[in-house]
């Protein structure tokens, strides 16, 4: 039986990947620290599954990681674990250095030491796949060509700087020690189970609660939206057939201005859950911009298509509708993530954003 050590598997993207891996018959060792965004409810359907082994712990805990590697001898490690929210990195960059940089470096070192004990055949079969972001490439202006795998790194936020640093360490472990690594750099994910600090679930849930819909700056900033299932399908492909030492871009080819996305959410909710008075879009508020707000991301994923045959299955508008329906159908999940800690974050991030 194939066995994978998946880190951050209780988060938004990691849990989607874990569920898919279990459906494909892969034994999953799921190492997750359960920070504010880690949520065991994302994995509720796996309760009682003896081939989903969940361990609450930090990727930076070398002793624990070595123990898991010795016991389970995974065929691959897929590293999703990270602090993932740009606005939080602006308020507390240190946490991003700890998990994303030091944590990844420690995970690499422990993996490398264990990998060196394997037979040559096992070493050649093993893979370390690191999940990264398009944000490491910086920001584009309208009309600039999309990021390719050779676009120079130019991170602008503490979050993207920490992800860039971790990517460099992953690459260095390949060059220096021969560890068979792969890196994927993807665009903005959306879909079920995303923590409602990110734009799409935040706007949707604020609208349902009759709260203002905060749009940073002018709302003209552009993101390239990728459905989480398309992302996970691409990761599976890269793990199976990608060339070690390489990075692969994954994008949704769905560039949208933020204000377009917010209006699309409002239009869907006007149909499915109308506001008590007026239209949901009446609640849109342009608020103070994010410092260092990257204007545009766009991902050229032609390498992935050309070399590995990947293609996104979701059209953004269909995926958005399906996502909103998922949140409407799962009010308990929503209620349980909107805890006291969540309310404190909303207060910290939005109270000081005066109207732009
Ligand atoms: P998320 O915040 O929903 O989940 C992160 C998970 O990692 C959580 O379960 C958390 O408990 C766990 N974690 C954090 N620090 C840890 C540590 N030190 N040790 C063990 N577990 C730890 O994030 P996500 O959106 O699912 O993102 C997953 C990965 O994908 C991240 O590496 C992120 O940088 C990357 N990424 C995300 C997006 C996106 O749009 N969400 C886009 C590009 C790349
Ligand atoms: O309240 C908001 N209002 C708003 O206008 C929030 C939370 C966001 N925005 C804007 C900022 C961005 O331009 O919406 C856009 C999307 O914001 P986020 O959902 O915070 O995502 P982003 O900053 O683009 O980063 C995401 O994609 C790349 C993920 O959070 C990262 O983990 C990933 O690496």
Would you kindly provide a written description of the structure presented here, covering whatever features stand out?
By secondary structure, this protein is of the alpha/beta class. It has a domain at 3-192 and 227-254 and 297-314: Rossmann fold. The protein has helices at residues 12-23, 62-72, 86-91, 93-115, 120-125, 158-177, 199-208, 228-241, 258-272, 302-308, 316-329, 331-337, 340-350, and strands at 3-7, 27-32, 52-56, 76-79, 127-133, 181-186, 188-190, 213-216, 222-227, 247-250, 255-257, 284-287. It has a 7-stranded parallel sheet with strand order 3-2-1-4-5-6-10, with helices on both faces. The chain has a 3-stranded mixed sheet with strand order 7-9-11. α1 (12-23) links the parallel β1 and β2. α1 (12-23) crosses α8 (228-241) and α9 packs across α11 (316-329). The protein is globular and about 65 Å long.
